[in-house]
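Worked example 4.2. Below are the chains of a multi-component assembly; read each line carefully before continuing.
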Amino acid sequence: MEELGKRAMAGDVRAASRLIRNMEDNMPGTEAAIKHIFPFTGKAHVIGITGSPGAGKSTLTDEMIASYRNKDKTVGVMAVDPTSPFTGGALLGDRIRMQRHAEDTGVFVRSMATRGAMGGLSKAVGDGIHVLDVMGKDVIIVETVGVGQQEVEIINHAHTIIVVLVPGMGDEVQALKAGLMEIADIFVINKADREGAARLHKETLSMLQMGKFENGWIPPIVSVESVSEPISFAQSVGVLTDKIDEHYQYLIKSNILATRSHRKATAEIYESLRAAILAPILDDLAANGELELMVQKIMKRELDPYSLAELVAEKYLISHDCLKV
Amino acid sequence: MEELGKRAMAGDVRAASRLIRNMEDNMPGTEAAIKHIFPFTGKAHVIGITGSPGAGKSTLTDEMIASYRNKDKTVGVMAVDPTSPFTGGALLGDRIRMQRHAEDTGVFVRSMATRGAMGGLSKAVGDGIHVLDVMGKDVIIVETVGVGQQEVEIINHAHTIIVVLVPGMGDEVQALKAGLMEIADIFVINKADREGAARLHKETLSMLQMGKFENGWIPPIVSVESVSEPISFAQSVGVLTDKIDEHYQYLIKSNILATRSHRKATAEIYESLRAAILAPILDDLAANGELELMVQKIMKRELDPYSLAELVAEKYLISHDCLKV
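Applying the procedure described above to all two chains together yields the following structure tokens:
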């Protein structure tokens, strides 16, 4: 696996693909690859794109790739697909995404979906970003549906966060928008040729006016549209990537980039601890049959989950004076 | 906190509300309440309702409450709102939900949102269900947006899972639907008076025909609509609650209820272990300043997250022969 890491770093696209697929599958040993490549990470500008289902994030990402290629920047994309924990597997898949960039060696697109009930998607995405980073991609776009808690965790791997809004969605979607409001560095009003776009722009603006932006960056609203003239989709997405670059320069100058890196590092520590501590305990309990006995006791109400967890902690944790378990 | 548990079990609505709010806030001590009430749980029929944003889940839940009240059943509702981890707090809120049932003591509605980056929403929802259960509610409805991984975990607390579909959503939403396909016990086509309802019904049916249903329950599709005649919204939701009751009887007869309880117990063990093992380690590391040092080392690339997690595991975990850490 470490070998895959080395080869990915040397630009081997197939090795990188396999490594990312292994991360998605939570295969043992991917940590060895990360250990190897980690010192060389942290060079790319990571852009997060989020928004409701149907907001047109994939189409936008596709056009952003083109825009960055026009600026001679290489691009990596990590598309996170919401999926069932029962089948696993990316629903939309790499194949149907961004076909037109398939021959371009400056572009590398991968999708990721979650498997199993134990979470870990955010960890896998974080690790995948490290792979794209050491492959030398200048810009890494992470695309995810911005609804659940875990999806927001994923987006926290990014330096610049784009929230995509679209006219004509229901009230509940507007509420979601409110939840995404505070994490946005840039708003995109997609499908801006649709009815209701002007109203959405106005609403977003008034929400922004109520917000506090202490550190000097007021999130701009960029409207993009795919059908009507006079501004083409490519042109309006060009305006967007300019704004994104502007935000990155702002992050560097204001030293907020360090704050974001701090947040990212904290998230990575939490995720690696979950993998290094909780997962082996669960594996151990499952292997010696104790987990099944515990499940039976819970089902029969002979023991509650918290008393049980305390017993497990007693068995596995070194008793520190300062650690109250 | 144990006192709150006792009072909630005695039917004290204010105590129950406070307890659930404390669970949502991840306040220390809520475990004591669960320990107290846990032996008395497991009586209610827990129904999960999920679907895309804008599918009309709240309106449907509201009408389901009315339908169950007509059948002389008491109802508890736990509405999970997607929200930002920065502000926390339910966006839609208890207040604007299901207003017409506010005076009915047989109905208890609470919403829950997630706070902080460490997850735990599914644990809080599971604990909240226990509270509603010992309050004596016959039916507990858990409503959540069915997009993210954590939301699917939440829905696993339910015995019967309803997936709400709605005509006229985009392709991406259809893909989401595919992800939700396997967890559904009953499909609801909401807003069935809208254009495209017949096509959606046909598509869902053909997806079902491709599926394998080994244990004898083929998920029915129930169409409900709020505007047109001859069947009123109340009547069509009545058909739905009949189907839900039928599913519950099926679960009991086929002994699948035991399988679902097994799944639920496993999820609860995982969540309580996370709370009892990982959280105190993180608190301990934060309290003595080590966490900040670790973050600095990660940011400077002096150490990678996985080597760091191994060091932490070495410090806190008892070295078991069978446990490879």
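Take a moment to check your reading of the output against the notes. Residues 84-95 of chain B have pLDDT under 50 and may be disordered. Strands of chain B lie at 45-51, 75-81, 107-113, 139-145, 160-165, 186-189, 221-223.
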